[in-house]
Amino acid sequence: MRVRDQDNCIIWFNGPSRNALLDLPHHFTEIGCNYILQDRRVDHVVAYDARVVNTVPATEGVQRWSTRSGGFTDWPRGWSEVRMPTYRRPEQSGTLAVALADQLRFRRLWILGCDWGINTKTIYDYGCGRSARKHTNSQKRLMEHWAQRLDIHVVADETRDVSVPHITQVQFREWYQDQLG
Predict the structure, then answer these.
(1) Rounded-to-integer distance, Cα 125 and Cα 101, Å
(2) What sections of the chain are H helices per DSSP?
(3) Angle at 24 between CA 112 and CA 161, to 5 degrees
(4) Cα angle vertex 30, ends 27, 33, to 5°?
(5) What is the pTM of this model?
(6) What letters, b where the CB count within 10 A reaches 16 and e where it falls short, cover 13-31?
(7) Which of 130, 156, 166, 178 has the highest Cβ tally under 10 A?
């Protein structure tokens, strides 16, 4: 059975492993984190931190999203709010992107560039030194919570430090190609 396109969502985290997949044709709705538009056109951009939000330009056809937890004094003009219960609060852009996919009612999520437990590197320079560890216990639990009701797959050739299903990049490319027809 073929899955309807509106059921699937591609989520681009900022880990270096995602670079090998940037050449995929745009077929499903895509959500990217922070400065993703430097590398790939997506449908939605999420940013958690106020200092990042203030530097992501408005782009025609791209909806920008953040959260009130991001440290704003005033809500940023042109940004929409990802709404979620306070007891399930993302603490960084990757999990905020998953929260947005849930809010938009996608049921099958493909997460690319989630390098949790492999390294703390990020693709982008945020001008503040080394990136903090992204996969805290609360963020891992949050992902595991979503995985109980959403069909989440982390696309990675090595197992990541999060208890959700994994699929290799080769397997994902094969599945993706099948969806293109």
Answers:
(1) 25
(2) 50-53, 93-103, 137-147, 169-180
(3) 10
(4) 150
(5) 0.89
(6) bbbebbeebeebeeebbbb
(7) 156
Residue 87 and residue 9: Cα distance in Å, rounded? 24
How many helices (H) and strands (E) the chain has is answered by: 4, 8
Highest mean pLDDT among 1-5, 7-11, 14-18, 121-125: 7-11
Q: Please report where in the chains the tokens 């991001």 appear, as a residue.
A: 70
**Contact of 116 with 162, CB cutoff 8 Å:** yes
Phi and psi torsions of 175, nearest 5°: -60, -45
Read off the tokens for 170. Answer: 């080769």
Q: For the segment 43-63, what is each residue's pLDDT rounded down to a tens digit?
A: 999 999 888 998 999 999 999
Paired with 108 in beta bridges are: 8, 151
Strands 108-112 and 166-167: unpaired
